[in-house]
Amino acid sequence: MGSLSVVMFEINEEAMDADAEMEKLKAMHESCSAEPISDSNNATTTEKNMAMLPGEIHEEDEEPKNAGEEKVHNSTARKKANRDRTLALADEVLCGREKETFDIIKLVGQPDNNQGCKVISVWGTDGTGKTTFVRHIYQSPQLGGWKRAWATASRPFNHEVLLRTLALQLLYTIQEDPAESTREQQKSISVMKLKELKEELARLLKLQRCLIVLDDISSALEWDVIKSCLDNAGRIIVTTREENIARHCSRVYKNIYSLDGLKDDAALDLFIKKVLS
């Protein structure tokens, strides 16, 4: 498969060249456009970082004829480009991993009251697509019965922020009528101290068993300060870069998954798919 490795390397180089060209176009646009991209705090990260299409650059001091329509068109184009890039990344991560996907979905199963909290660990080095892989499972319609919440560990780690994120999501998802999740309740959680947060999270998890994802746990200590608050959760999926942390979080061997790079056959299938698309 040596020739395949060379081909894949060349494809990566071409992708890097394409990204470089996009950065050049973005720089040209920001210097020439009548409406530079806003740095307002209200602008989303995606909106601030996506480059405008070359065909929409105007001469300096030239006012677009249909500025309103053009803004809508630009926004739609950016969203489509972002969506296409996300789908392409998902294809690369999921290619050849149908069995792992099936196994983990089966392991999570459907909500029940007969089991304790089950912890599933997914580990792999940077660039293996752990987060994309687990998000695909998290969003799977095959897990339709679960109420779900997702939190990514911040850096530096702050378990109070992580618990608050989970509590706010669960407040909304567990309610039979989401409208009952009032601004007052959300505001209350937003200002809770750590002890109150733990109590609120425990209360919410007693109402209904949930599937919780803890993304990018980087030490055994991070897990230890969180796990006691999640005893009433039905399932927890942890992603981490370290095998020893994966084993620390999930003590059951069959619940630990290693996400490696693409096997040669899967890489070849992906290459053929990209060539033909």
UniProtKB/TrEMBL annotation:
One of its GO terms (molecular function) is ADP binding. It comes from Triticum turgidum subsp. durum (Durum wheat). This is NB-ARC domain-containing protein. Residues 59-79 are annotated as: Disordered. Residues 64-73 have a biased composition (Basic and acidic residues). GO terms for biological process: defense response to other organism. Residues 112-276 form the NB-ARC domain. PANTHER family: DISEASE RESISTANCE PROTEIN RP (PTHR23155), OS02G0475500 PROTEIN (PTHR23155:SF1114). Transmembrane segments: none annotated.
